[in-house]
Amino acid sequence: MTAVPDIEFRAVTKRYGAVTAVSGIDLAIPPSAFVALLGPSGCGKTTCLRMIGGFEQPSEGQVLIRGRDMAGTPPYRRPVNMVFQQYALFPHLDVEENISYGLRQARPRLSSREISLKAGEALAMVQLAGYGRRKIHELSGGQQQRVALARALVNKPAVLLLDEPLAALDKKLRTDMQIELQNLQREIGITFVLVTHDQEEALSMSDFVCVMNGGRVVQLGQPSEVYDEPADLFVADFVGKTNLLSGKVAGLSGELVDVALADGTVISARKRAPLSRGEAVSISLRPESLSLSVPGGGSLKGIVRNRIFLGSTAEYAIEVQGIGSLLARADHGIGRGSLFKPGEPVAIGFAAGAPLAFPQTKNNGTNQREDQHVEILS
Amino acid sequence: MPAGAETAFSMRGSLFRKNLLTALLLAPAALWLVVFLVLPFVAIAIFSVGERAPEGGYQAALTFAQYANLPARATAFWNTMVLAPVGAFACLIVAYPVAYYLALRAPQRWRLILLALIVIPFWTSLLMRTYAWMYILGGRGIPALLAYVGIEDLRLINTPGAVLLGIVYGYLPLMILPIYVSLERLDRRLLEASADLGATPLSTFIGVTLRLSLPGVMTGFSLVMILLLGEYLIPTLLGGGKVFFIGNALVDLFLQSRNWPFGSAIAITLVLVSVVVLIVANRISTRLSGARRVDLI
Fold first, then answer.
1. Fold of B73-289
2. pTM reported for the whole predicted model
3. Which of A154, A166, A364, B242 sees the fewest Cβ atoms within 10 Å?
4. In chain B, which residues have their Cβ closer than 8 Å to the Cβ of A106?
5. Nearest to A102 among B190, B192, B198 (CB)
């Protein structure tokens, strides 16, 4: 770990008047990684990206790019380039002029042969060779997206910043672009920092996910880590689907904790934070960690309310007396028995270690703030 | 296929109703334009190929003698052709920074107030405001004040500078508003994108801001320039009436010497020049902004 991080935040805080958008973030983004800043709207992820780009100045703390403090360095002197949310392509320039815009700003000046050569390479890289003379408004959304990518990458930035780049694309195109972005990142080998509120996108594309909430980094880790070992209740709930059950701590033994649910059932969970006896906790149970069987075994009993058959899997909504509705996902193998039908009673089991216990209090606060924020906006 | 035919028929019926409604809505404006613009224009066109009646006015004829006589007013044409673009340009130089500030720098809540402050003077007649400038620039105005601090014998009124000042003052809002609108519409992220791609603030201004506000600039420029082609009041009041413009020529020919055909020929020529200015301005702004269509006014 001797390598200088591409991007480093040191105790960065950003305030807009009385509102704190980002509070005290410490973050180091290793070189050549694909990093996603993930969080709900208003969590400060875009502000972080804009501070890297130089469009916002931190109120406190430092932002470093490749070890250099960027305080006072305007956007046009930073070795980063951004793909903007709605691409922000220049409407008065054609595709090639858009792409070569950054090259024309270079000092000492590049020869026009060099510029058109590099622009041509960039066009080919995003599979738009032959589109150079097109007007921007003649392109589809996906093509505009590629132009925006080429326009940023042609400058060979140290870090590429992507501000919700796929939000405006339809689902099919988005999936294609996700794969393409990943391939590009590996080919070029520079750091990509992607801002997104789409947890699936973050999990599927990035090497590291940085989950943010309420202006703070809640967890930084590999996608599987964030999914399997969420740092807190917010992450467990925000990343992927999960069932949240509330209960009280009935007993403690090492890493495990016994939790009494509302209906009196006691289940054993792994604790993700220090807990004390009697404390109110939430238990997170991923839908795929639940196993369904005919009544008899299992820890919980319920009745199938709804079934969504998805081909390789089936999702069940199961009503459990005294607890509420649980979501379960079961793999469906051909010839492996029939599916449960709505109205059928089932027993629900789960692997030991699958339930995670979190203290209930703190994060609810931030969640509520989030909700209020959204309300004000709408 | 009776069902299809019926649909086609009722569609034609609704289309007819739609057209009728459109026609009714447009009728008042169309009538107004025909009576007060098209008919007078036709009359002027007919006058321009006629002859002056001995006692003044118009006498039917078909001759291009009036047009052949245009060089007699070459000086007025020349003066106008200089005044209009120079005046419009001076207006532009003053208006652009104001529009830029209003659209991109002024705090949101102040914008409407500042815009109103620019427009409000327009509610008084241009004649009144120009008279006010006569006093301000005249012997008892600024020169008198300057005399207190020892600057004597400064002549402001009846100079080309005074005319330019009057023009800029009088036509400023017409230049500011279209430029403001085009700058207001400018996508701020384009400015960020430009900076992100390494452009200094100056290159961003020239390459993006100015370039994308050109439709507004051309609109303002052609508006002011066309109005200046017919302007005679400000030069008369603030310039001392020593230099003649087409506007002066028209007033003279129609009201004093009553040579309507010649005046008509000059008016027609002026209209043609205006149309050419509009077309050229439209072409330029369409080309430079890369827009598909430009609203000129």
1. MetI-like fold (1.10.3720)
2. 0.81
3. B242
4. 198
5. B198
